[in-house]
Input
Amino acid sequence: MHTGVCYFPEHWPRDRWETDVERMADAGIEYVRMAEFAWNRMEPEPGTYDFEWLAEAVELVGDHGMKAVLCTPTATPPKWLIDEYPSVRRVEDDGTPLEFGSRRHYCYNSPIYRRESRRIIERMVDRFAGNEHVAGWQTDNEFGCHETVRCYCENCTTAFRSWLRERYDDIDELNDEWGNAFWSQEYNSFAEVDLPGRTPANEQQHPSRMLEYQRFSSDSVVEYNRLHVDILRDADDSWFVTHNFMGDFEPLDAFDVTEDLDFAAWDSYPTLHGQEAPDTPDPDSEAGASIQRVGDPDLTGMNHALYRGASDGAFWVMENQSGDIRAYPYSAEPADGMMRLWAHQAVAHGADTVSYFRWRRCTFGQEQYWGALNNYDGSPDRGVVEATEAAADFDELPDLDATSGDVALLIDYDSMWALHNERHTPDFDYWAHIRAYYRALRARGVTVDVVSTAADFDTYSAIVTPSLHVVDDDLAGRLADYAADGGELLLTVRTATKNEYDRFRDELAPGPLSDALGARIEQHESLAPGLDTRVRYDGDTYDYRTWGEWIQPEGATVVGQHESGVGASESAIVRNEHGEGHVAYVGVWPESALADALVVALLERAGLPVSEQLPENVRLTERDGHTWVTNFREEDVSVDPGSGTIILGEETVPGRDLAVVEGPAHEIAIRVEQ
Output
């Protein structure tokens, strides 16, 4: 477990570099990431290269016992390139090309930009191949940031048509699978298929066309990233190759991109993400005020688990928040201890390296108000002290294998895209629905793996598939077989409603999973916040929100019924024996009490330990026989380690602090200090 930092030597005079790098080493930093935005400094004019300044910085990092992580600089094409090749720019859906003056102003499908990217990357790797101080590379920077995954230029139109030709035998098959007889939308050839631009019914784009365009756009990034990876691997196979993804990021399938990487990394800004997420409290509430200072532990934790799942093991946090941030609408200073606590939260979830953004706050450009370990005059800020403490902590802990859990949550980008294309209510958010179950499991001390539908299901005692909306026959068969072989499968609202082309089948949902479930979904409704929404489950009444379904059992046992609305007395939750295991279906979006009852029952059926419900904002995360107790509260909590031993921290864990127990999570008891 290591620490790193992001550094921009091109921002500072050379006579400052020695001081900065020496202080990094003194703080326990082991990796220094550089050069992701420095294309113009490396090629100030077309074909004129200068890598010596970067080589000098890399040498300095190595001389102080650290390793450099270099980046391909393609996120910021320089002005001369845009002037010479204006067609490389990304185009908005209204036809407006993005101008120079920020970043990510390029199109992934531009043949010219791919050629220019290949050229600068090849020259970079030629200069640094075999350099003992370079440990690995980050490709580009935050693919898709600023809503740039999807482009509407002519290059993308041509590429989309080619992409469709590879997926369909002929245009008749496309018309049939999409259902283009609706509204006279049939095509006579692939050359007629345009990108889904603005239409009179702009909120009612053809769902099949939209889903295929979204898949194509994500695949375009995958292909562009592969261009980088292939060049890097050919140059020096000792390098690792990663990319820094973002939290709750919808347009890009992280699992697909990571297939070409050694592992995933992501950029964690808890107080920013806590403000942006739809399932975090209002800022004027007590819980919302806490998020301003500490973030949302489950939002951050679920993204750690997602990128661990994408990596199939250890991952990195390439940018860890190190102070206040230029985020809207608010930017409070994090509470004391949070930079250290966030680092521990990451390694508990399986991060091998936590790299802080950034060493020093910038004195110019768009991110002057973005915090850093040091202030803009170079003096130490609060973050550098806590980063040093985290590095020292990691030195005290043993080497640990990657985190793994007994319960999996499935994330499916196709389902997310399809659901968000047809939300049916502004309150239906895929990430928020998944987190309803993630929060409930984490509040019971369960370490959860967040994995794709391609994962090996047999390694899990229980699987939760929140709103697995788009399901083909192969996936349905694998899920049914998992339950038949003794697994515990929990399906939730809107699961298997659509086939892989985003259209209803000729049978009611959950379609190919209906036999395993022993039930079908008769009706559905989206529900405004003011409506009465209650169900009775296992003898108790619970609230739910947003979405409700009426279930027709066909052999399944009804364990929950609606108690409100037009569907009162209709079945809401069912469970069915299937082979050696069970398939359950929850036809409502549960509020927290119901989510807790559902996951407790799931854990009991799976034969997994059920811990006491943890105090709010306290979490247990188990990694290789060691459990992190992370306290995001202001109040102290006491830790009873059971048969385990506290190896870092004390039995009383102060607010915004932690302890590490050598022992299993389910034996640990937590009490709030009075």
Observations:
- The chain has 19 helices and 27 strands.
- The mean pLDDT is 96.
